TrEMBL record:
Keywords: Ribonucleoprotein, Ribosomal protein
Family annotation (PANTHER family): 50S RIBOSOMAL PROTEIN L9
Domain Ribosomal protein L9 residue range list: 77-122
Protein name: Large ribosomal subunit protein bL9m
Family: Belongs to the bacterial ribosomal protein bL9 family.
Gene Ontology, cellular component aspect: ribonucleoprotein complex; ribosome
GO BP terms: translation
The organism's place on the tree of life at top rank: Eukaryota
Organism: Lottia gigantea (Giant owl limpet)
Length: 251
C-alpha cells in the first residue's frame, strides 16, 4: 500500500509543480550590497596582553558616520575611437563621467578604457599619422559652426566688380571668422551681379566645408541702401516644425 502511495505522489508532483509555476509569480531576490561606516560611542578599555577586552552593553552602541555606496563615483579616463564634437578627437585621452562612458560611449564603441595596453596601441597609431594634419577639438567646433553660416558679402553698387577670394575673406572677418585666401575655394568661375552662391573653406585636418553666401549691393547714396536692411540672419538656426492640428487633436 505504501509503495502505491509513493508512486502516485511521485507521478503527481510534476503536474503540481507545473501548475504552481504558472500561478505563483517568480521573484528574483538579490543581495543588497552596501557599506556603512560606524563608530563606537563608548570605546572599551585596554586589555592585558594575551586577553580580549571586556565588552559591555554600552560598547555595542554605534554612531552612524558615512554611507559609502551613496557617494558619487569619480570620473573615468577613456580613449576616444572617433571624433566627437564637444568632447575630443580620435585617440585623445579625455575624462568623462562614468554614466556617460558606460551608457553611451563604451556600448556604441566610441571609446575604450584607458588601460596600459590601449594607451600603448593608440600611441603607435599616432606615430603612424605623423606628417598628416592633426584634427583638434577646436577645428571640429569651427567646422560645425561654419556649416550654419549664411555669409553676406557686400559689393559696390556704383562700380563694376568680379567676386574673388579677397571679398569673401573680408566678409568672413566681418562676421568674426578669420581665414586665409589659400583655405577658400570658389565654386563659380565668375560672379559679377548680386546672387546666392556657394564656396568651400578648409579647416585644419578636416574635409572642405561648403558654405552658402549671398551678395548684396552697397551704394554711396545712403537712400539706395534699403536692401541691406532686409538681410536674412547670418547664422542659420534649426527651428522645430509645429505639429499639425490633426496630431494635436490625437494627443
Amino acid at each position: 500500500m505504501m509503495r502505491g502511495c509513493k508512486r502516485v505522489v511521485t507521478e503527481a508532483l510534476p503536474s503540481i509543480s507545473r501548475q504552481t509555476k504558472s500561478v505563483l509569480p517568480s521573484y528574483n531576490f538579490q543581495q543588497l550590497r552596501s557599506t556603512v561606516i560606524v563608530k563606537r560611542r563608548h570605546e572599551p578599555g585596554l586589555a592585558k596582553i594575551g586577553s580580549n577586552p571586556k565588552i559591555r552593553t554600552r560598547h555595542l552602541i554605534y554612531d552612524f558616520c558615512e554611507r559609502v555606496h551613496s557617494n558619487p563615483l569619480p570620473p573615468i579616463q577613456c580613449i576616444l575611437k572617433e571624433n566627437i564634437l564637444g568632447l575630443g578627437v580620435e585617440g585623445e585621452l579625455v575624462t568623462v563621467s562614468r554614466k556617460m562612458f558606460r551608457n553611451s560611449l563604451y556600448p556604441r564603441q566610441k571609446a575604450v578604457y584607458a588601460s596600459p595596453e590601449n594607451l600603448a596601441e593608440y600611441q603607435t597609431v599616432e606615430k603612424d599619422k605623423t606628417g598628416k594634419k592633426k584634427v583638434t577639438k577646436f577645428s571640429m567646433t569651427t567646422s560645425a559652426r561654419l556649416k550654419k553660416l549664411y555669409l553676406p558679402v557686400p559689393m559696390s553698387g556704383d562700380n563694376k566688380w568680379t567676386l574673388n577670394k579677397d571679398h569673401i575673406r573680408l566678409a568672413l572677418r566681418k562676421v568674426g571668422v578669420e581665414a586665409e585666401q589659400d583655405t577658400i575655394t570658389l565654386l563659380h568661375s565668375s560672379i559679377t551681379e548680386p546672387q546666392e552662391f556657394k564656396f568651400e573653406i578648409s579647416v585644419m585636418g578636416l574635409d572642405p566645408i561648403t558654405v552658402d553666401g549671398h551678395i548684396y549691393l552697397v551704394y554711396k547714396n545712403a537712400a539706395k541702401n534699403m536692401a541691406a536692411l532686409d538681410l536674412p540672419p547670418v547664422w542659420k538656426t534649426t527651428v522645430k516644425k509645429p505639429k499639425d492640428s490633426d496630431q494635436l487633436e490625437a494627443e
